[in-house]
Structures are given as structure tokens and as C-alpha cells.
């Protein structure tokens, strides 16, 4: 139980630090920042685990895990899963494509919005639309694709990722998606 | 504690296999609902398996099998729920990710231009497909040719807007 309690404490600290720093200065790439804060708290979690007694001064003996390594690993796995949940919630939720559509519909108010209006929201005047405009540079920067004049090619890394995606889509029976 | 985690891993593998088999037989219209139903079956199964199996699961070392019943049950169930969320997130990342879709489209057409990719997988199709998925899931409804938020959609939008404000995030996309 000690591992779990420390995990919850460190997760709250992670969230607090993340919120405070992001409120002081907006980050262009919040996900890298989330990862940096998370990795920063990992040695602190390990240190706090090593420096505290097994009962944390208040746990009854029935709540103390007799095997310390199991308790520690359990806490670590739960911490990783909580962080992953938070990351994915932000990625797929507030920062996601669907959320963009929902927020735009909320902005237009009670009269509602047509499909054309929603498309216009993602279009930038005279530029690549918001969807490709953000992702293509990210894919180029991440080394997944390469541009040769106008031709776009998958790099080795990009091909591995695309092959893996196709395999996983077939495995879990996912649709074309996107 | 170890016993609970092992049981939760085993049950997670079981429900994921059932989900994959179920989706291969017939893809459900409401995928999330289907994922939740299959997982929900394993939730009452967890305490039952936990109760019926020995503390050491026939192979655990003695030191790792001394956890009290309730502590093992609670921590195992918590792990089981977190594994569920992790898998659902993984599933939807594979299913819905726009970035991965772009990579797959480029893979299908070696030596194509970006404009050709955009011609096939374009924003108009993306928006139209996504609002239809959101309608199927009850987030929006179509009234006289205009998309409206449902009460469920409003609740989600408010949650997303609040999270954006708290984390000082710029709009996504």
C-alpha cells in the first residue's frame, strides 16, 4: 500500500507542477513538457520510497505489503499508468480533433453549424489547413517522412511505424480511422 | 498484491482476446460500448477468481504471497481498471489517429506528392466522417442541416474547455 500511496502523492505533485508551470508560460509542445516533468518526478518517487518506513507511520499492518519490491514495482506501474491516462486524456480530449469540432459548435451557439462551417474552421486562408499544417511538419521533424521536391516518402522509421499501424489495425480490427 | 496483479493481467489478456475475436466476427457500431461491456464481465469475475485461487497461485514464492486478502483484492482490481483504460486509449489511438492515418496513406502510395495524399485523405472527408461518428456516439445531432451539440456533447465540450483553461493549452489540431 505504501507504493500506491506514494504514487498518488507524486501524481498530485506532478499535476500541480504541470499546471503551475503551464499557467506561467504556455508551451507550444505540452506533451514533451509533460514527459519531462514526469521523468523528473521518477527519481523523487524512488527516493521517497527508499527513505520512508513500510507503514508510512500510519498504515495498519494489514495494509503493509510484506514484499517490498512488489510494493515498489506496483507503485511504479500505477504511476506510469496514471501518467499515461493523463497524457492520453489531454491528447485525445482537449487537444484532439473531435474536441476542436465540439468547441467550434459551442462557439457558434444555439443555431448550430453546417459541415461547411466546420470545415472552414480547420482551413487557413491561402495556407495548408490546420490538420495537415501541424502534422506534416511534426512528421518531417520527427524523421517519419522526407520530402524530395514535392514528393513525400516514408523514412525507415516512418515505414516501421506505418507497417506497425497496419498490423495493429488488422489485429484489433480497427477501421481506417483518422 | 502480486497475486491480484497476475489475475488482473490474465483477465485483461482474456477480455482483450474476446474483444478482438468479437470485432473480427462482426464489428460493432458502437465500439466503446462494446469494449465496456466485454470488460464489465471481467469485473465481477476478478473477486471470484481471487477468492477461489490459493494465495500463492501454485507458483509464487512465499514472500510474495503474504498480502492480506483485502489489500490484494483492492490493488488487483485497481490495476485491472487501469489496464482497461490503457488498452482503450491504445485502441482508439490505433483506430482514430490522424497522424497514423497520414503515414498509412503515404505507405499505400510510394513516391506520391503531398497534394495527392491530401486529395485522397482530405480535411473535408475527415470532418464529415468525424461528425458522423460523433452523431453515432450521441455528441451531436443534425437539425435542418445544422449540427447541434447534444447535452452529452455540451458536457464533454465544457470539460475539454475547462481542461484547456486549467492547463493553458492552445486549441488543438
Low-confidence stretches of chain B: none
Radius of gyration of chain B: 22 Å
SSE ordering of chain B = HHHHEHHEEH
Enumerate the strands of the largest sheet of chain B in spatial order, edge to edge or round the barrel.
Answer: 2-3
Number of helices of chain A: 7
Q: Give the termini separation of chain A.
A: 41 Å
- The number of distinct helices of chain B, counting runs of at least 4 residues, comes to 7
The share of residues in helices of chain A is 55-70%
How much of the sequence lies in strands of chain A comes to under 5%
How many individual domains of chain A? 3
- Write down the oligomeric state: heterodimer
Question: How many domains of chain B, as an integer?
Answer: 2
Secondary structure tally: strands of chain B = 3
What's the story with the biggest beta sheet of chain B? Answer: 2 strands, antiparallel
Structural class of chain A: mainly alpha
- Number of beta-strand segments of chain A: 2
The profile of the biggest β sheet of chain A is: 2 strands, antiparallel
Please explain how this structure is put together.
The complex is a heterodimer of chains A (178) and B (173). By secondary structure, chain A is mostly helical. Chain A is 67% helix and 4% strand. Chain B is mostly helical and 173 residues long. Chain B folds into 2 domains: 2-96, no CATH class; 137-173, no CATH class. Helix content of chain B is 71%, strand content 6%. Chain B is built from 7 helices and 3 strands; from the N terminus they run ααααβααββα. At the A-B interface, α1, α3, α4, α5 and α6 of A face α1, α3, α4, β1 and α5 of B.
Amino acid at each position: 500500500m505504501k507504493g500506491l500511496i506514494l504514487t498518488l502523492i507524486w501524481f498530485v505533485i506532478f499535476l500541480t507542477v504541470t499546471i503551475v508551470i503551464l499557467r506561467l508560460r504556455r508551451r507550444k509542445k505540452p506533451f514533451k513538457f509533460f514527459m519531462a516533468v514526469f521523468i523528473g518526478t521518477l527519481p523523487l518517487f524512488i527516493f521517497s520510497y527508499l527513505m520512508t518506513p513500510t507503514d508510512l507511520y500510519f498504515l495498519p499492518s494489514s495494509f503493509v505489503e510484506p514484499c517490498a519490491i512488489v510494493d515498489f514495482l506496483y507503485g511504479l506501474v500505477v504511476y506510469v499508468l496514471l501518467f499515461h491516462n493523463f497524457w492520453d486524456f489531454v491528447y485525445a480530449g482537449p487537444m484532439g480533433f473531435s474536441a476542436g469540432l465540439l468547441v467550434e459548435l459551442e462557439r457558434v451557439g444555439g443555431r448550430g453549424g453546417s459541415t461547411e462551417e466546420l470545415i472552414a474552421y480547420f482551413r487557413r486562408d491561402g495556407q495548408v489547413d490546420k490538420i495537415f499544417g501541424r502534422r506534416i511538419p511534426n512528421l518531417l521533424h520527427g524523421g517519419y517522412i522526407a520530402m524530395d521536391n514535392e514528393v513525400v516518402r516514408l523514412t525507415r522509421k516512418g515505414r516501421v511505424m506505418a507497417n506497425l499501424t497496419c498490423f495493429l489495425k488488422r489485429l484489433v480490427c480497427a477501421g481506417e480511422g483518422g | 498484491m502480486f497475486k491480484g496483479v497476475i489475475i488482473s493481467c490474465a483477465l485483461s489478456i482474456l477480455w482483450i482476446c474476446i474483444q478482438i475475436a468479437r470485432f473480427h466476427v462482426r464489428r460493432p457500431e458502437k465500439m466503446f460500448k462494446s469494449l465496456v461491456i466485454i470488460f464489465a464481465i471481467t469485473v465481477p469475475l476478478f473477486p471470484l477468481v481471487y477468492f477461489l485461487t490459493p494465495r500463492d497461485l501454485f507458483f509464487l514464492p512465499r514472500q510474495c504471497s503474504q498480502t492480506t486478502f483485502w489489500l490484494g483484492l483492492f490493488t488487483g482490481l485497481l490495476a485491472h481498471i487501469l489496464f482497461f483504460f490503457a488498452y482503450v486509449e491504445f485502441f482508439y489511438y490505433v483506430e482514430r489517429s490522424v497522424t497514423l492515418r497520414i503515414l498509412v496513406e503515404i505507405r499505400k502510395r510510394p513516391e506520391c506528392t503531398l497534394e495527392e495524399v491530401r486529395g485522397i485523405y482530405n480535411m473535408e472527408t475527415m470532418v464529415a466522417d468525424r461528425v458522423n461518428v460523433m452523431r453515432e456516439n450521441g455528441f451531436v445531432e443534425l437539425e435542418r442541416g445544422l449540427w447541434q451539440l447534444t447535452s452529452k456533447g455540451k458536457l464533454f465540450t465544457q470539460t475539454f474547455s475547462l481542461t484547456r483553461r486549467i492547463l493553458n493549452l492552445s486549441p488543438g489540431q
